[in-house]
Amino acid sequence: MNINWFPGHMKKTIEDIEKKSLLTDFYIEIIDARIPISSRNPLLKEALKNKPGLLILNKSDLAEDSQNKKWEKELSQNGNFAILYNSNRPNVNKIIDASFKLMEDKINSFKLKGVNLTTLRAIIVGIPNSGKSTFINGISGRKSAKTGNKPGITKTNQWIKINTKLHLLDTPGILWQKFEEKETALNLAYTGAIKDEILDTETLALRLVEKLNEINPDLIKNRYKIQTDDLTSIEILDAIALKRGAIIKKGMIDYSKVANIILDEFRKGIMGPVTIERL
Q: What ranges do the domains of the chain cover?
């Protein structure tokens, strides 16, 4: 299953992020806690150069607690600081405290020069559908950024003043042109970072069933009340379709309908918390 998606505006966006980052002290990157590696755009590493990063493991409520703690520790290295977060339950103080902790050395160096750095400026980045706009709206307390359950909502840069302590420069969500690893592309597709309109969702759902069955077979068994032992992935898909009435004429399986059911319920966390990329 080949997945390629790199709209022309994204190259320009990367270049713009590099320029605008010069106006900020650090960056905030919104990461999907279910796929902490796949949801980080490698092009941003060069664009943001040596700036420290506050890494927001967003949607942590949809991921497994034990894995969340491991990833939080793993990503808090090399000048970065990672925290667990759920944008649907905004916590302004947590973000401000984490920002000042990240920038503690710079703040102290300024104090030695007689300068009291009380306001921090950050450029905020993330891949499509990472929850970036929801994050911004939550901590700003207003609808300053458009939100949606599809990638590509934010189109332009905009400054958002959280309070006197923190100012954010929002940027559009961007992917990269070529996915070196097949699993990376699949992980992004599972979580909705790539538009379903350009995907073969039936094959994608089949691959997701394989992955979930590998991680924890009980996720599918408990959600759909089916027995998956000794079944192939396509047989599991058929069993789910029968349970959910995804049937067309003459008892044939409606694979498009059952695929949408599985992808939607995974993305919303209805199956239960699950981390795709594991430590």
A: 9-170, 200-267
Question: pTM for the full model?
Answer: 0.89
Closest CA to 128 of 159, 172, 183, 64: 172
How does pLDDT run along the chain (279 residues), one tens digit per residue? Answer: 555 555 556 678 888 999 999 999 999 999 999 999 999 999 888 889 889 999 999 999 999 999 999 999 999 999 999 999 999 999 999 999 999 999 999 999 999 999 999 999 999 999 988 999 899 999 988 655 544 444 444 445 678 999 999 999 999 888 877 777 889 999 999 999 988 888 899 999 999 999 999 999 999 999 999 999 999 999 999 999 999 999 998 889 999 999 999 999 999 999 999 999 999
Could you tell me whether strands 120-126 and 166-170 are parallel, antiparallel, or unpaired per DSSP bridges?
Answer: parallel
**DSSP code at position 22:** G
- What gap in Å lies between CA 236 and CA 92, rounded to an integer? 43
Residue 159 DSSP SS3: strand
279 is written with which tokens?
A: 């430590």
Q: How far apart are CA 198 and CA 96, in angstroms?
A: 38
Superfamily of domain 9-170: P-loop containing nucleotide triphosphate hydrolases (3.40.50.300)
Residue 33 burial by Cβ neighbours in a 10 Å radius (0-12, 13-18, 19+): buried
- Report angle CA 254, 260, 261 to the nearest 5 degrees: 90
CA distances from 127 to 75, 171, 209 (A): 17, 10, 24
In the three-class reduction of DSSP (H, G, I as helix; E, B as strand; rest coil), residue 9 is classed as helix
CATH class of 200-267: mainly alpha
CB atoms within 10 A of CB 237: 24
